[in-house]
Known about the structure:
Layout: E1 3-6, E2 9-16, E3 21-25, H1 37-44, E4 48-52, H2 69-82, E5 88-93, H3 95-106, E6 111-117, H4 131-139, H5 145-156, H6 159-164, H7 166-176, H8 183-194, E7 209-214, H9 223-231, E8 236-240, H10 252-264
Parallel strand pairs: 3-4, 3-5, 5-6, 6-7, 7-8
Antiparallel strand pairs: 1-2, 2-4
Helix pairs in contact: 2-3
Amino acid sequence: MPSVKVNDINMYYEIHGDGFPLVMIMGLSANIDWWNPEIIEQCSQNYKTVIFDNRGAGRTDKPEIDYSIKMFADDTKGLMDALNIDRAHVLGVSMGGMIAQELVLNYPEKVEKLVLGCTNCGGSKSIPPGEEVLTKMVSLGGLPPEEMLQEFLPYLLTEEFIRNNPEYIESFKQRALIAPIPADAYQRQINAILGFNTYRRLKKIEVPTLVIHGKRDLLVPTENGEILAEKIPGAQLLLLDNAAHFYDQPDTDKVISSTLEFLKASVEKVIDKVI
């Protein structure tokens, strides 16, 4: 299993495909096993696709120190340097989208284009989930991995999707339980999210940006995607009628094609559609 020394940790990563680099950043508690294999397959046909486990998650080290989103961004930049990646497209989902924001704000020379999925700007200007959802998310870290995942699912996918796609759900559960996050590391990642805020800095993002958000997202309400698209200069917004927090379901083909179209397009081309 490939790993590399980055800052104070050993980071686990994988590279799929060849071409211009695409760095993909996962969210809270998650690791590379959580990526939809179809997305990795399609992206790797077009790009040198780099996926990795964040600090505290999966097979990457889990130091017993306070984490921050800026720290995660420094790790991502360090991994890119270790892999001799001078510049890349960057795609971040959920907490990974927060990390991507810090990456482009602190190291703009590293980012060619930016894709932000199901994420927010943090701070008082972001729209929080309902109190019940927030309480549930904070409490999940104390549960055994299988129970934690089972409790997590209704906040990731719609009830209809879970009911109608048992094979996908079973496959996802098997992948997500390969290297589950320990309770203490989960809490450190939660604390990092609570300290995150880019609202006043979003206007400084100068790279082409695509914001993707599900209209049925309970964890990160849709308004957060609208705030990002409004505040990031020239950002494009893609809203998905049937998607929850896992915005790539159920319209996986549309999400992949829209993302690849955005990454391949010249800077002048604009995606102005809403699904």
